[in-house]
Each structure stands twice: as structure tokens, then as C-alpha cells.
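explain this:

___
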Amino acid sequence: MKNNRRDFLKKSGLAGLGMAGMGLMGSKKDSDNRDAFKSDYRQRFNMRGYAAPALDVVRVGVMGLGNRGSGTVLRLASIEGVEIKALCDVRPEKAQESADAISDHHSPDLYTDGPDAWKKMCERDDIDLIAIVTPWERHTEQAVFAMEHDKHVQIELPAAQTIEQCWELVEASERTRKHCLQVSRSSHRNDTAFVLKMAREGVFGDIIHAEGHYIHDLLMSHILNKSMFYDQWRLRDNLNRQGNLYPPHGLMPIVQMLDINSGDKMEYLVSVSSNDFMAADKIQELAEEDDFYKEFVGKEYRGNMNTTIIKTHLGRTIMLQHDVTSPRPGARFSLISGTEGIYAMSPSRFAYSHDGWVDQEELSALIEKYTPKLTARFRELQEASQRERQSRGYAQVAPIDWRMIDCLRNGLPMEMDVYDAALSTSIVPLTEWSVSNRSNPVLIPDFTSGSWKTNPRIMDVDLTHGGNTRIL
């Protein structure tokens, strides 16, 4: 166990700081913690609300063409004004499959010559946006390199794995003035966008508490699937780690609803993980019949359930949970509670008091009233696409895909920025540290360098600008 802890500290960039140095609340070495989290860093340029020059055509390169990446190619190719210029994967057949899927309207160049071929793609001067859909540990390196070569980046979550990597993303985005968007689709989903609108309209009063999760039963379908991930990277990322490994899906809608980075900030967290009750036993069982799994026998696996509590500067609390191995229905954003009301999902329900939930008729009226223009416009574009299909739509486009391209084409600020990416993924190493130290509190860095006090909101749910990009 001691060796595992040392390996974690080294991997997460926290080695040498010691328990107190990493933010044990009340420690005499709090100054060490502040130094480790760049308390002396001065923001080079505030990317919050920054609008890059408009791009009539967004020229895209995609790296990582497995299950998620191949879908990214199809979705982006289904949006007006997108040209897929290049595709990259270490497996030539995967690059060719993605190119063939869009060959009627796109002719991308393929980069498959070794593990560093992605650099050649980023070095081109005819690409505006790099979509990064590679294994987690490569995300930061590739995003920083792309930004330094004059590209905006779209990163599949989590954007980083260590505190140092979070700062690398912030520094690169500010230095290059290139957008760094972590793709958290939950924030723009229909069933969370109207809750954000309710929060901004004051329906909940002063917000007190929120909850978000990443709960799926992915043990057999993903983690132990022999063909789902290149070199079993998803399984390997669940070895010798205890914490919340995938926080952004459940957290990012809450970040928007609580105006985190735009009026409030996270102060500290505590995190606790259960034991692993399933993965090790299942791997032992599989290995008895399949030698493929033998190298994974006898390893320590992430516990089934991780629960994390976050306290904000304004005194609100956030609960996050992560469980991808227990037989539970899926859950992401889950609950928001304030002085005037509460909303909970699965099933959708709302209450003004302890007397009980409002009936379905009143709930439906609330949803209709607070469905934002952003959601309504996206639905219109989806319906128009279905009516006027011209063999250009390759996949169902997600709202975040469409809005990202729409913002780039209209020269609008991104609706999630590098500060959101850094903050939401810093939860990964911070929870690992807390769990490894008997759930001690740990301070959370301020990646905005204090600008959270005056930063504007950036998710334009009222669609005051843009919205004119079609879905094909």
C-alpha cells in the first residue's frame, strides 16, 4: 500500500509536498500548499469571455479514432461549416475507417506513422481546431502542443491527470489565446439546461447544495471489454488508484448553476472511497478461462464507490459520486437545492417545501417555462435536419458539438473554457490525495488567479448571439 501511495503522489504531481503541504486544513504549512498551487501565478490573459476571430469554415483535425473518436468525426462532420482536414491514429485501419465514413463530402489526410504522428498534424497551418480523443494520460501534452501551434482544442474529458497538467493547460491557453474546451456534454443537455435557466432566474432562491455523479455499470461493457480500448488503457487507469477518476460529467452542470469561476470558487474537498467488491473477483474469474486477463490478476482496483464533498467560497456544498462497476442505473447531474426550492432528477421532480413534490402538470409547466432559447433553437435545427436530410448527416449531433462550432463561426466566447477544464479535472488528483490520507481535507487551486470575483457568466442559455449554424 505504501508503494501504491508513492506511485500515486509521483503520478499526480504531488510528490515531495507531504501531507500538510498538500492542504491538510489547519496545517502550519498551508503556505507550502499555496506555493505548490501557484499562488504567485499572475494571469497572463483572461480567457473567460474571450472571443477569438470568427471562422466561417472550421478546419478540423481529430486524433484518436477508437470508439469515442470515430463518433467525434461523424458528429463534427454533420455540422455546417466544418471541414475535416486530417485524422490521426496509431492504427492505420482506424484512420481509414473514419475517412471512409465521411468520404462523400470530406477528404482528410491520414496520420498513422508512429506514436508521434499527431505532432505533424498539429504543425499544419491549415487546421483551426484539434479534437483530442486519445487515452487520458495523453490529453494535456497533446492539447498544449496543439495550442502552441496556433490551434483551438477540444479535449475529451478528463483534460488532465495532475495538478501540474491543469496549470499547463491554463498557461498555454492564456499565452496563445487559444480556446481549450473540455467536452462535458452534460451542461448543454436538455434536462440540465432548463435547470440552469431556473437557477439564473432565482427559482431556487439562494443555492445551498448540489449533487452530481458519474454512475454507470461499465464493468463488463467497457472496463473489462477486450476490444473496447486500445491496449486496455481504461482498465489500466483503474489500477492502484482510489478517487473520483471522472468528475466533469456530474460536476460541470453544477459549475454553471453555482457560477463557479464567475462569482464563486471551490475552496476545499474531502473524499472517501469504498473497497473494490467486484472488479478483482471478476478478473480472477475471467482469467481462469482466458489467459488475456492473467496480467491483471492480483492487482488493487479502484473501489466501487467514491463520494466527495466540496465546500465553496460562498458556503455552498457539492456532493460528487463516481461508480462505474456496481449494478446501478446511470446518473450524472442529480440535484440542486436552495432556500426557495429543490429539483431532483431520475425521475424529474420539483418541490417548494417539505410538503412534497409538485404534480406532473405543474412540473411540465415549469419545464416549458424555463426551457432556454439555446435548447429550443437546437431542437429546431435537429428537426430541420431530419426534414431536409441531404446525405450530409453522419451521426446525431450533441448540443455541445453544435454550440462549439457555432461559437467559433460567430466569433463568440466558448461556453466552457480552460478554467473549467482545469478545475473540474483537478478533482481527480485531489480526491486521490484525500482518499490516500484517510479523507483529510485538501485545498482546491484557483486557476482563475482571482478573476472569479469579476468574471462574467459564459454559457449563453438565452442565445443572445449566434445560433445560425445548421445541423446537416
